[in-house]
Design goal:
The relative contact order is 0.09. The chain has 6 helices and 16 strands. Helix 3 packs parallel to helix 6. The protein is α+β, with helices and mostly antiparallel strands. It is flat, with a radius of gyration of 30 Å. 23% of the residues lie in helices and 34% in strands.
């Protein structure tokens, strides 16, 4: 081949676009190596404590023996959930009056294997909005793990995957507590450890009504039990005609069906402490 033809071929080749076949690279979650952690420990930069979550995504780590907790920005919390035992890398020295910041680098022990919340359906999958507001992330529930629960049902779910930087935690429904509109569902009440939590069941409804009855009696001690009962029934926030879902058993299997609210309880409504006091005032005059 002549020199002229070789040069012409080179020109043609140089004008063509070259395509290089490459493999897709998946982003990796950066996890510190053990030697890095050992080095940070030597420098006094590692702390171990309990993660206290916040609904906005950030949190704090309480370290035993230390007066101030460590602030964890949402971007530095990783997959940590409320009450998890975590290992934290301290950030730079805080300015005067500012709180020490840190990054969760390792989950040492998971505190929550189950969560309670309200199921929110999206097509053939859904999410659980946790009752405890210290859980900032909704829990994803696939169609096969939803057990046929309906939108708005109060449920218990087992956490099967705690997620990562780009994925929500995933769960499996283990129990359906029924509609949030059913009597005795989602009652906010005092709880152990000087805290308040939401509970579900006839016992919760009974305790709430008993509490309002005691409140009325404390303000109007001369009222009889029969009078207080009538006052509570008369002063409810009416739910008559409203349909709610209730758990039932069909052929020894759990199921759901619709019932009128007033068929499920005597009052046909929700106890109303404020209206009960106003009604008691009228009766006692």
């Amino acid at each position: 081949m002549s020199r002229k033809k070789i040069q012409e071929k080179k020109k043609k080749l140089s004008g063509k676009k070259k395509f290089i076949k490459t493999k897709a690279v998946k982003p990796k979650t950066v996890t510190p190596k053990k030697r890095e952690i050992r080095e940070w420990e030597k420098q006094g930069l590692i702390r171990v404590g309990t993660f206290i979550g916040n609904q906005k995504g950030f949190g704090f780590v309480e370290v035993e023996g230390e007066e101030e907790d460590i602030f964890i920005p949402a971007s530095a919390a990783g997959t940590a959930m409320h009450q998890d035992q975590v290992q934290v890398l301290l950030g730079k020295e805080p300015k005067k009056g500012k709180r020490q910041e840190g990054t969760v680098i390792r989950i040492l022990e998971r505190a929550n294997q189950e969560i309670v919340g309200t199921f929110q359906r999206e097509r053939d999958y859904g999410f659980i909005l946790c009752d405890n507001q210290k859980f900032s992330k909704d829990v994803y529930i696939s169609a096969r793990n939803s057990k046929g629960v309906r939108d708005g049902d109060k449920v218990v779910a087992e956490i099967i995957d705690y997620g990562d930087a780009s994925h929500k935690p995933e769960g499996r429904i283990t129990e359906n507590l029924g509609s949030i509109n059913a009597p005795g569902t989602d009652i906010y009440s005092s709880y152990m450890g000087d805290t308040y939590q939401k509970g579900t069941g006839e016992g919760m409804a009974s305790a709430t009504v008993a509490g309002v009855a005691a409140l009325v009696k404390s303000y109007f001690p001369k009222l009889t039990g029969s009078q207080i009962r009538d006052i509570l029934l008369k002063s409810v926030t009416s739910r008559k005609g409203v349909e709610v879902e209730k758990g039932i058993r069909v052929n020894d299997s759990p199921s759901q069906d619709l019932f009128l609210f007033d068929d499920l309880c005597i009052s046909g409504g929700i106890v109303n402490a404020y209206q009960a006091i106003l009604e008691a005032e009228k009766v006692s005059k």
